[in-house]
Amino acid sequence: MPDAPAPLTGSVPQRPLRVVIPAHNEERVVGVLVGDLLDQDYPCEAYTVWVLADRCEDATAAVAARAGARVVERSHGPDGKGELLRWHLAEYPLAPDEALAVLDADNRVERDLLSHLAGALVKGAVAVQASVLPSNLDASPIAAAAGLGDWMTREMVYAGGRGRGRPVELSGTGFCVTAAALGEVGGWSGSFTEDLDLTVRLLQAGHRIRYLPEARVWDEKPTDLRAAVLQRRRWAQGRTGVRRRRGPTLLRRAVAERSVTMMLMAFRLAVPGRSFRMLLTVGLGVWAAVAGWGFPISWPVWAALSLWLAGRPVWALWPLREVRPYLRWYPLTLMWGFVWLLVRLLPHRREWYHTPHHGSASGEDPAPV
Predict the structure, then answer these.
(1) What is the rounded CA–CA span in Å between residue 170 and residue 190?
(2) Residue 291 banded pLDDT, cuts 50, 70, 90
(3) Could you give the residue ranges of the DSSP H alpha helices within the chain?
């Protein structure tokens, strides 16, 4: 069992945090992240860093221990991050006043991350999501296309929707939730998208997830097409499962409670992603042009919809100088629409797919782009 949290000192209110890093064969990257976390500007007595080494076949556990983390190893059990987190909390329960922060092993974090997370909790938030941004946009065109999606989420969905009732989703990494809220909604699920499943359950319990744009986590994106497609396929499959399992109840609650936030979340679960909608409008526009004006909606309307869907992200991202050079790879994001189709046409994967990471344990400071 973990030691009881040490009493906190200092004039600024603080919150005990447990930072966990689920890791499977991550010896190349996990030590650097642990180093980032042990160099925070948050009081060292106020948090602990745990690495959950899940059925590793490399030196992940040894590297993490040498870097200064508490390490626990799981040698067997069901696949998935949610199952691993559920196992960890069953073996090492959170203290009543503790909050759980989750990071991926390939992440890099800035020195003020924990201060931002704890500050939001002290002000009354029960779940907070940091801004998760790509660390390797220049690694390959595929990494750039995958990473642009993170910037779109930051600029168009979260930052643009602050104060408008738009729901914030937990992103799988860079988030924190209190022990009380986690216990209230039943802990972790075995979903392939455990973050989305927890998001929906928090909303149903009446909890809003607070977005912290000032807290930044740098995340490595897949650099080759196969890895990117398999990752997106897992996300799409998990999202479909959450929609089927949670969507009807969420929609009924939204109508009964007249909740704009839950209604928008139910809509987001039901509607395909932007890339698929872009493909669909382009296809319907071509069909309308070939079929002539007898088609129910003429091709200029479909063309306008396609331009709006394609142009809005570019408009939102163009002011960001660090992102602007990579917008040349934006057309590649259309491939994610085909992944949405792939999930519906092919049998669902039953096993967990681990996305390979290519980060280096060089210890260099986070350099986003």
Answers:
(1) 16
(2) confident
(3) 30-37, 60-67, 81-91, 113-122, 141-152, 179-184, 194-204, 225-257, 260-270, 274-291, 299-317, 335-345
List the structure tokens of 40.
């925070």
pTM of the model: 0.86
Q: Is residue 212's pLDDT more than 90?
A: yes
Distance CA 243, CA 111 (A): 36
Under a CB-based contact definition with an 8 Å cutoff, are residues 132 and 58 in contact? no
Residue keyed to tokens 């869907």: 309
Q: How many residues does the chain have?
A: 369
* Cα 65 to Cα 59: distance, rounded to the nearest angstrom: 10
Q: Is 157 left (phi over 0), alpha (psi -120 to 50) or beta?
A: alpha
Longest dimension (CA), the chain: 74
Those residues whose C-beta lies under 8 Å from the C-beta of residue 203, and which sit 6 or more positions away, are: 167, 209, 250, 261, 262, 265
The 8-class DSSP code of residue 241 comes to H
State both tokens at 316. Answer: 């939102």
Instruction: Read off the pLDDT of residues 108-138 as tens digits, 9 standing for 90 and up.
Output: 999 999 999 999 999 999 999 999 999 999 9
The owner of tokens 């069953």 is 90
Between 304 and 358, the higher pLDDT residue: 304
Question: How far is the C-alpha of 2 from the C-alpha of 88, rounded, in Å?
Answer: 11
C-alpha dist (Å) from residue 125 to 70, 106, 298, 306: 27, 27, 48, 38
Nearest to 3 by CA among 50, 38, 52: 50
The DSSP output letter for 29 is T
Q: Which two tokens stand for residue 190?
A: 């075995």
Please name which of 75, 63, 140, 35 lies closest in space to residue 364, comparing C-alpha atoms. Answer: 35
Starting at the earlier edge strand, list the strands of the sheet with 108-109: 70-74, 47-54, 17-23, 99-102, 175-178, 127-134, 210-219, 108-109
Distance CA 144, CA 355 (A): 16
For residues 95 and 82, is the Cβ–Cβ distance under 8 A? no
Residue 30 near residue 50 (C-beta atoms within 8 A)? no
User: Kind and range of the H or E element at 48?
Assistant: strand 47-54
CA 201 → CA 52, 192, 241, 273, distances in Å?
24, 15, 14, 21
